[in-house]
Amino acid sequence: MTIALKQLSECPEHLKSVGLWIYEEWWRKRCDSPEDVFSWLRTHSKLDTVPYSVIALAEDEPVGSCCVIENDCIHRRQYAPWVAAVYVKPDFRRRGIASRILHEAAAIAARSRVKGLYIDCLAVTASVYEKNGWAILEREVGDKESVVMLREIESIRLEVADGFYLNPIVRADKAAYLEHFADPEIVRNLLAVPFPYTEADADWWLDRCEQSVGPMTNFALRAPSGYLIGAIGLVGELLADAHCVEFGYWLAQSYRGRGLMPLVVRTFSDYAFQQLRIHRLFATPFASNLASQRVLEKAGFQREGLLRHHHLKQGVYLDAILYGRISDSNRSA
After folding, report:
1. Between β-strands 280-283 and 302-313, what pairing exists: parallel, antiparallel or unpaired?
2. CB 3.0 to 4.6 Å from 272: which of 22, 195, 261, 278, for a disulfide?
């Protein structure tokens, strides 16, 4: 039996099935109609964004689910977010489906920059969650024999090669940004980075990275030591219904010429196609930036044409070369 895992936002046709499970198991005493549950589940509408629901499908029929929500314990409002309403249909229990649902919920949390997932459960069921990575945080919480458990979420890390990797941009990267963007050669080939690059510029960018919500779309490229030596990410925000998005990247001078950046672009592209469900990625390097064009070609992107006066940088119109790649799993032509 093959089990597929999807978010409710990807298969809203199963909303009522999940809603009826939740109503019958937990909500019947607190609301008059399943419609209240349906309305609540309709807020789980954005991919990789709390609140979300994970559904297990067997032959495209829902057999289990769980929700990740802002709060599931009135006695511990300081904690967030929470896993709630973990359910597997009786005929499909003892097959590891609940574990797969919980691990998928945690994987989504990592992409969403969530640092921990909480669960409020009866003490007698705590062992189930301990086997799936949760640890008891507090006992005898509230007016029932329950425990609060926490699964700490490791930040997302995409391995590139030889110890180089991609992971979130953090506040501690400020010194690296100031160092690298003091190089006019790097800034010359980037559209929106000012020169000279100031501490205020770095603070603005790091604030934006720190405060952004939803799936991870901008990554630091790190040397094996952990020091930031470049970056790659989408241009602008990722809209819920986006299928075609632009991305950009840069690399410190001392790491060029090693064949590293094509591997980085491939790694990021695979993540965008598989995890962000993007259908088409494209980039628009300056026509004068031949090195960036070679990177894209080595990473499997096709040159699609010349975009005349596509960019405006410091009052000067610049031509760009359009490169695109379509997800291998979604090719129709």
Report:
1. unpaired
2. 278
